[in-house]
């Protein structure tokens, strides 16, 4: 309890100090980090006509340009703008680490990772077999002296084409947990998100106060991530897209875990579905996806800067994935 009181007192002191010296920036969105998923070395999924790393780069660059045009005062930072690895990474782990570092060093206020989804089945469709009847078949059963002939009813198979029907967009966020590595990213004052940029308080990152502070920020970022994610899904739905929902993850997505700011990963659609892949590769489709995310960001920015980021989000209803 004493540690909590110390943190609250320190944060209150910080708020008072900055209010008298510089305008507080906790609710101001100044920097957006856009992360086009995968690259030519560490491939994502593939469709019939395209690769994930190419589609995400095209959408990511268009999204950045749209944000800069709509909000000239906002700085847009990309984790990659070419086909190659991020900062010449030689392993996937290093590539993902470099993406998070770029976001943290930029002190981003929001991290948007662009991806495409896939099913385990082949893109477009596949052949499967089904039983359409039976016929008598003579087989040998048993071994040695007990071996004998026996009539059995053998199935008759038919091959048929199964179209890959899975479609839809989803958004993933990082689950807030007390032991999350996201706390480490937040707790490092050199890598903290943009909301802590103006802090004049020096923290011992191993102290109980700093850890509690980081947990408070993690919860704050979790709520903001969930809010923006839901806004993105709402815009996709308005455009007539199939939406799958907002999912929270606690394993397997390093760029969400290691970024000390509100972070989302947007699965823009399924490259394994022929029609959705064509949509995501078309100029109209990409422009619509960008417009949907931009409209969601406009709403999010207005909500956050009015201090309503904790409202209208029921995090208890988020799906696990």
Keywords:
two-stranded antiparallel ribbon, 9 strands, seven-stranded mixed sheet, disordered N terminus, alpha/beta, single chain, 321 residues
Provide structural commentary.
This protein has 321 residues and is of the alpha/beta class. It contains 8 helices and 9 strands. It has a 7-stranded mixed beta sheet with strand order 2-1-3-8-6-7-9, sandwiched between helices. Helix 2 (52-70) links the parallel strand 1 (31-36) and strand 2 (75-78). The two termini are 34 Å apart. Residues 1-25, 189-193 and 196-205 have low confidence and may be disordered.
Short note summarizing the structure:
The protein has 8 helices and 9 strands. It is an alpha/beta fold and 321 residues long.
Strand content: 15-25%
Per DSSP, the total helix count is 8
Biggest sheet layout: 7 strands, mixed
Low-confidence runs: 1-25, 189-193, 196-205
Shape: elongated
The neighbouring-strand order within the major sheet is: 2-1-3-8-6-7-9
What pattern of helices and strands is seen along the backbone? HEHEHEEEEHHEHEHHE
So what's the oligomer here? Answer: single chain
Kindly name the structural category: alpha/beta
Task: Assign a percent range to the helix content.
Answer: 25-40%
Counted beta strands: 9
**CA-to-CA gap between the ends?**
34 Å
| Average pLDDT score | 83
Q: C-alpha Rg, in Å?
A: 25 Å
């Amino acid at each position: 309890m004493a540690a909590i009181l110390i943190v609250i007192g320190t944060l209150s002191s910080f708020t008072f100090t900055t209010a008298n010296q510089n305008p507080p920036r906790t609710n101001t969105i100044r920097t957006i980090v856009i992360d086009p998923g995968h690259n030519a070395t560490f491939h994502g999924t593939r469709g019939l006509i395209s690769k994930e790393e190419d589609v995400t780069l095209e959408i990511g660059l268009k999204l950045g340009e749209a944000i800069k045009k709509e909000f000239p005062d906002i700085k847009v930072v990309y984790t990659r703008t070419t086909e190659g690895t991020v900062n010449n990474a030689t392993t996937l782990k290093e590539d993902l680490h470099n993406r998070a570092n770029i976001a943290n060093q930029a002190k981003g206020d929001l991290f948007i990772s662009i991806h495409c989804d896939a099913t385990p089945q082949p893109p477009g469709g596949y052949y499967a077999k089904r039983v359409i009847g039976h016929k008598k078949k003579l087989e040998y059963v048993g071994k040695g002296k007990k071996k004998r002939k026996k009539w059995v009813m053998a199935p008759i198979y038919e091959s048929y084409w199964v179209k890959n029907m899975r479609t839809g967009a989803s958004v993933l966020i990082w689950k807030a947990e007390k032991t999350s590595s996201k706390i480490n990213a937040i707790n490092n004052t050199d890598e903290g998100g943009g909301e802590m940029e103006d802090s004049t308080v020096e923290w011992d990152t191993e102290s109980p106060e700093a850890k509690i502070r980081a947990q408070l920020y993690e919860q704050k970022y979790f709520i903001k991530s969930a809010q923006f994610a839901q806004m993105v899904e709402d815009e996709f739905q308005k455009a007539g897209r199939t939406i799958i929902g907002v999912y929270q993850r606690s394993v397997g997505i390093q760029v969400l875990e290691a970024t000390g700011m509100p972070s989302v990963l947007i699965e823009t659609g399924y490259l394994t579905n022929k029609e959705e892949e064509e949509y995501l590769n078309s100029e109209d489709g990409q422009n619509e996806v960008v417009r949907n995310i931009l409209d969601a960001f406009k709403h999010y920015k207005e909500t956050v800067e009015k201090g309503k980021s904790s409202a209208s989000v029921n995090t208890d209803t988020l799906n696990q994935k």
